[in-house]
Amino acid sequence: MKHVISMLIENESGALSRVSGLFSARGYNIHALTVAPTEDESLSRLTLVTSGTEQQIEQIVKHLNRLIDVVKVLDLTEGAHIERELMLIKLHAVGEARDEYKRLTEIFRGDIIDVTATTYTVQMVGESKKLDAFIDALDPGLILETVRSGTVGVMRGEKCLHI
I want to staple 11 with a disulfide (CB 3.0 to 4.6 A). Which of 29, 44, 112, 135 is the partner? Predict the structure, then answer.
């Protein structure tokens, strides 16, 4: 099962390396990883997506909590939460395909952010499933490039990840 784990880590060199090292040492895969500074300059928020059984995820969280650089860990998947991912996708767009891509982009609530004589670059934000569905609706041979940010997430309502 997919789990979104969010944590606050010290904003220092080597912190990310220690977190990723913990995963590789135990043979767990990181499907997506996003890190950015928080409103507190001394802390960064790291969000990662991994998969495993409930026991494996419980062990991962316990090991993460033991790392010196990790301030707090929260498995967002345990409660109501919001997930989003950003995707930029460059498409070969000529002839009738241009109108089709415009229509498809509107249906998926994306934006065409760059236009040339032969390409469209589409920006789309949403859950990973939505982005996957957009890609599936396209002719794979006309996709020139795809860049995805990885999942970020927060708990719904009043619950926050803070120290």
Answer: 44
